Amino acid sequence: MKTFIFYTRDGFTQDINNKEIENMQVLGFSRGIDKNSAYKDFIKNFDKNNEYCYKEIIAQEVIGNPTYF
Questions:
Q1: What is the mean pLDDT of residues 8-18?
Q2: In this structure, are strands 58-62 and 25-32 parallel, antiparallel, or unpaired?
Q3: How buried is 51 (Cβ within 10 angstroms: 0-12 exposed, 13-18 middle, 19+ buried)?
Q4: Where are the domains of the chain?
Q5: 24-55, pLDDT tens digit by residue?
Q6: What is the overall mean pLDDT for the chain?
């Protein structure tokens, strides 16, 4: 099984001075034999816990173990 990260360019973020920051939002991770099966699993779990709507969701395979700071 492969691990995929799902993210979007939709939406925006503001700093503490209300200045808009152009960035991407990580939506979550999922596993599957390929990105299509991982996406199906992601959507199943994402829809249960999320009220937000996105036009575009991007998938990228994660190589190795993710490093968290």
A1: 89
A2: unpaired
A3: exposed
A4: 2-62
A5: 989 999 999 999 999 999 988 876 656 777 88
A6: 86
pLDDT for position 45: 82
Give backbone dihedrals phi and psi of 59, rounded to 5 degrees, phi first.
-115, 140
H or E, element range at 29 = strand 25-32
Check if the beta carbon of residue 10 is closer than 8 Å to that of residue 55.
yes
Encoded tokens for 22:
């152009």
Residue 17 DSSP class: T
Place of tokens 């968290």: 68
Give the Cα separation of 64 and 49 in Å (integer): 27
pTM: 0.77
Within 8 A by CB and 6+ apart from 69, the residues are none
Q: Beta partners for 14?
A: 20
